[in-house]
Amino acid sequence: MADDLLPDSAATQTQTQNSQIDWSQPNTPAYIPTIWGRLYSTKVAISGKHCWKNAQYPEYFDLIQPEFTLGRALNCNFVVKKDMIKENIIKNISKLQFSIKRDMSEPLCPAIITDLSYNGTFVNNEKIGKGNCRVLDNNDEIAVTHPIVKIFIFKDLLKNEQDQVPKEISKKYYISRTLGQGACGLVKLVYDKITCAKYAMKIIKKSRMTNGQINHLNDPEKIMNEINIMKAVRHPCIISTEEVFDSREAVYIVLELMQGGELFDRITKQGHLSEQFTRFLFRQMVLAVKYLHSQGITHRDLKPENVLLESQEDDTLVKITDFGLSKFVGEHSFMKTMCGTPLYLAPEVLRANGQRCYGPEVDVWSLGVIFFVCLVGYLPFSADYKDLSLKDQILSGRYKFSQAHWRGVSLQAKLLMKRMLTVQVDRRITLNQILNHSWMQDHDVIIRVQKLLSHKEVMKGMTQLTVSSTCEDDENGNADTVTVIRLVATGKRALSSSFSSCEPIPKKLRVGTSVEKHDDTTSTNSYCSDD
Length: 531
Fold this sequence. Notes:
α6 crosses α13 (443-460) and α8 packs antiparallel against α11. This protein has 14 helices and 26 strands. The chain has a seven-stranded antiparallel beta sheet. It has helices spanning 8-24, 87-90, 167-170, 220-232, 263-270, 275-294, 347-352, 361-376, 390-396, 403-406, 411-420, 431-436, 443-460, 513-517; strands at residues 37-41, 60-63, 67-71, 78-79, 98-101, 111-115, 121-123, 126-127, 133-136, 141-144, 150-156, 173-182, 185-192, 198-205, 209-210, 213-214, 241-246, 250-256, 297-298, 307-309, 318-320, 327-328, 399-402, 463-473, 479-489, 525-528. It starts with 7 loop residues before the first helix and ends with a strand. β20 (307-309) and β21 form a beta hairpin. It is an alpha+beta fold. This is Ovarian-specific serine/threonine-protein kinase Lok-like. Residues 1-25, 512-531 are annotated as: Disordered. InterPro entries: FHA_dom, Kinase-like_dom_sf, Prot_kinase_dom, Ser/Thr_kinase_AS, SMAD_FHA_dom_sf. It holds the Pfam family FHA.
């Protein structure tokens, strides 16, 4: 049809050029833009409170570019004109009324609308407010200057997972990409639709089956134990919970998002950490565990994967997470359960074998393993070390000592490590003794940590979890009660974008060919014991 509008000679020339392109570039794909959203014009309302003049409005506008703007200014993507919009509405529309942005480089990133006007932009009858933003979801109504002056209905043309969670959750959160996955569930990046704040949502399936048998990691009692601990703890160095949704099929735990990633990833990226940086991070870990013990809680699964960093900077808060294996204990109570990640298990846990008792000192041993890994970048105990079995290595406290890796580490750091990895519980160093150890006495580090903790305490305010229940029907018509445990709070804190779930599936540290292959000579590698 286009060629019919051209002179014969021009049409012939165009056909020749097209023919040449077809032959010379047979494998060149045509560019097809991604239409990530669509703005449908609102129809004429019975009340007459619509934006468009008569029926001259376009049916819809495709959203292709990362940003769409609307207003009276000529540089807007959609310029409000008198021949389309009613004059009494135009006079109240700002030069820049609102913008809609979407980060196309981020998978499953939501569309964000920002109000740039003085007279207001509204989504589903709620005013956004100048300079504020909110997440746009499918079928959201956009109005300008007044809630009844509806101009568009937004259609999300990209895949999202809103229908994969209970309605109580999808009403409040936009479900984005998967951050991590493990044996007891997965973690999703989610956005609060009103504030656009990012969170990590941990999803624990209640009836997951493994090889035809129930996965005990998802035992309802274990799940509620984790929730109860989250309700009880409030500390700057412990991950905070936004709210919990308890449905028939799964538990959804919304947690603060940690932008700095796991301690494990920081270690593997750098090979090992300096003593100064280790001292800064380790002090926070010890304070967090000391707080847990003061509340009668033993973590029992401390490892670098369960230590998260708030930011990518060196001056970052440390956050302890994953309480799936934690347990409340009384002042004179002990634990018997055989649990935790084998590489970080204390010897008394192995000796107990689910029969004998052990106490909160097991966390000190795990801290010692973390301390070891931070300083030298390899594991003290591993099944890959063939001289002894992993169990025998731990029971005897015979850790792999590489002279090449420990050469640059101070004597005081080595002595502290040795005291934490002491097999005899009554001889093992305590948390208070760790804080008072000579290696920990760095005035600059103490001040930096105290400033971080004090600032976070002021920012977070007082928080309390509240519980409510709602009942909804699923697509099969089955009623499902969703219990919602919310935080009543003035301040929020934030799981890592590289978060991994709570189950004991250990990652391996591989730093240096000598450690990976374990073929060092006796002059550079040896087993050391506290005996």
